[in-house]
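Hi, here's the filled form for the chain we discussed.

Project: internal
Contact: R.S.
Residues: 377
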Amino acid sequence: MAPLPSHSVAVVLGTRPELVKLAELIRVLGPAARVVHTGQHYDEALSGGFLEEFGLPEPRFLTGVGGRPRAVQVGAALTGLDQRFAADPPRAVVVQGDTNAALSGALAANARSLPLVHVEAGLRSHDRNMPEEHNRVLIDRLADVLCAATPDNRAHLVEEGIDADRIAVTGNTVVEAVRDHLPPPDERTRLLADHGLDADGYVLATVHRPENTDDPAVLAVVLGELAGLAKRLPVVMPLHPRTRARVEEAGLWPLLDAVTVVPPTGYGAFLALARHAALIISDSGGIQEEATVLGRPLVVVRRSTERPESLTDFADLVEPGLGIEAAARRRLAEGPDGLRRLAGLPSPYGDGSASRRIAGLTADAALPGGVAGPVPA
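And the returned structure, exactly as it came back:
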């Protein structure tokens, strides 16, 4: 990787998953990285401890973004980033995924004619009801370097008319994140004991997406399905602040009486719980990838997914509703043989070298004449 001046690459992020997936890239970039946190989802329980756990430098924070409507978030973050980029232009800007923070970073880079690197380019759910689908399509159109995690992601971009020379298949940075932060076996054993859990003897569940939480009736059904499953074996649920608020507003706490509710965990502790779960149930995009690295079965509770690679072997897609418990029971019925089969399969998301590949592409883009220039807005 070509050497870069200090703080010459702006890494724009705003959520916990972005911290997870960009941590190794930030470390590889070293002093060249300038981390800017938009505050989209900043919460001490969700993000604060991650900075210390991942050994990341203290970000430069924007204010007035978190907890506001999508358009206001994007506008406020764009204004703050534009002011920073005008006062101290980076040589390149890196964004990851499809968040409002990523879209704001992409627009700010384009407005200031700064090379833009998009990590995890080319994901498509083909579901226009998802705000993230619009974000990721727009970011890919603006990006100068598109880091596709899989060949299918690359194919989406080429089909949409994006120049193949701008696309690189890098793998997904989640692979190295999981490998680096999964605690050793003895620590995992202690963590399970602290929670009173037996390896391969419980279900791990997470729910936070609007399609599962914003409508009290839908949330009640989802929680009811988890409660039904808890009659068979323990269900552990780290409760997202968004979900907790919706449960309180709708008076749904009784549905969680049979579920073991725990606060949001650190990343390593969550991976430990996921690694030894008989089944994971989640609406998270990142967990769809992490489950393939950990070799665990997953029920995805969503209407659509932008990660179909996980569905080939590791995951089943189930719409929010009464089919969740049945889908879970089908996976659980595979028992130890099913777990052994998944443990022997490679993750479709790469070999754990994505961050180094992306760092090299970013360094090339940051050099004078490194890219042809930003796509006109």
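Let me know if anything looks off before we file it.
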